[in-house]
Amino acid sequence: MAKKSRYSGEGSVASIACSHKNASCAAVTLTPTDLAHIKGQLYSTDDKVTQDSIILSHMDATPCKRRRPQVEDEQKRRQRDVSIKFSVLKENKTKVPVCQASFLSIFCVKKDRVQNVAKYWLEHGKARSENRGGSREKKQVIGDHIQSFSCRASLYARRGAPGRKFLEQNHCEYQVSYSLYYSIFMYDFNLAFGQPAKDVCSICVKHRIAINNPDSSPEEKRDKLFMYTLHHRLARQVYHSLNDVADSFTICFDVMENLLLPKSAIGQTYYSWHLYLYVFGVVCHRGRGEPQSRHDINLYTWMESENSKDSNTFALALQHFLTKVAQEDLCQFQSLRLFSESCYVKNKNINVLAILFALRSQLYPQLDIQYFFPIRGHSFLPADRVFGRVEQDIRKQPTILLPEEYVSILRKHGNVHQYGKDWQCYD
């Protein structure tokens, strides 16, 4: 903020700092309109390098040709290396000579800045380049290297660091300081190393431990590395299938983290008994790169006191979406594809399958239904992106006391179906 104020001219007024009336300084002839126009020439940009070039264009700097000893004590004599003639350019393109004091007060700059600009021009024949903040070349190389990283988003790390992504193995051969690389890495790109702290894939952990085991032979490590690579390819395969929507109606559904009621910063509220608000999200996926519109997002809500959080409730919420909300879409498509986590309590059970069998036999006999389950720990689905945006809005509210306040936040992101009003749950 200080630098922006310094190079924007805010809070400073151009003025005349002398009363000279001679040929070398005609500052008294300048009107207030002229002063505002001359100052505006310099502060038309807030870039320091450009401003220094403008200051240099109003000066005629030459080396000192003659020195006159005005002080008897030689140690107290000031050795001036540069002789500068100052002038300003009026709106009618007339050049007016001024003294140094008026030049500084008109442009609202300090004497040291003007002297340094003139000295550098005499030594190098050009205006001074920008050297503050370290080497631009190094920063550009670091930025290009970080942008080449292969990143993946974390499912459970979105609460502590919104937008944080995690890196896979990378290598840089450019020699830079640790502090410079760290500052660009953290504050310009918001990246971090490591796996998500929760719900990691057990197969990945098993293979990594075997690969890093010092007692394993090279052949065993090579075999484990091959299995680890194969496992990752299989895990990525579900995302290729997810984005290959073609002529099918593709939906993803998942359960959001429990929302606390009441939500407050007061200590007594934190240690009190809470009621949970459950959110079950169903998202229509249109393909890679397609935006998630509000029309494609459906959020089913119910309180802990209204019903339990089990497979029966999830199945009935899914049935309401397929029979009431997406009925017209399913009549237009020949194929229905479903993606969800392979959790036996929530999705991968007989209740959900029974709903799908009944749906096909009673309402859509022509419909081909495919159900995909990503590998656990590799199940970052489009529904999770919706939940991440909702959580960002919830964090902005320090106090939430009623379910309606949560519902109003959810309505900003999708269609909300409240239990007892829009849908019911049966056995």
Q: What is the level 1 CATH name of the largest domain?
A: Alpha Beta
Tally of strands: 13
Mean pLDDT metric: 83
What would the CATH topology of the largest domain be? Nucleotidyltransferase, domain 5
Radius of gyration, taken over Cα atoms and rounded to an integer in Å = 35 Å
Please give the alpha-carbon distance between the first and last residues.
62 Å
Output the structural class.
alpha/beta
Q: What count of structural domains?
A: 4
What does this structure look like?
40% of the residues lie in helices and 16% in strands. The protein has 15 helices and 13 strands. A hairpin with a 5-residue loop joins strand 2 and strand 3. The longest helix is centred in the middle third of the chain and has 26 residues.
Task: Write a concise synopsis of the structure shown.
This protein has helices at 2-6, 32-42, 48-57, 100-107, 111-124, 136-147, 178-188, 202-211, 218-243, 267-271, 311-325, 327-332, 350-362, 382-395, 403-411; strands spanning 59-63, 82-89, 95-98, 151-153, 165-167, 191-193, 249-255, 259-261, 275-285, 297-303, 335-339, 368-372, 415-418. It is α/β, with parallel strands linked by helices.
Task: Record keyword descriptors for this entry.
elongated; three-stranded antiparallel sheet; alpha/beta; 427 residues; 40% helix
List strands and helices in order, with pairings.
Layout: H1 2-6, H2 32-42, H3 48-57, E1 59-63, E2 82-89, E3 95-98, H4 100-107, H5 111-124, H6 136-147, E4 151-153, E5 165-167, H7 178-188, E6 191-193, H8 202-211, H9 218-243, E7 249-255, E8 259-261, H10 267-271, E9 275-285, E10 297-303, H11 311-325, H12 327-332, E11 335-339, H13 350-362, E12 368-372, H14 382-395, H15 403-411, E13 415-418
Parallel strand pairs: 5-6, 7-11, 10-13, 11-12
Antiparallel strand pairs: 1-2, 2-3, 4-5, 7-9, 8-9, 9-10
Helix pairs in contact: 3-5, 6-7, 8-9, 11-13
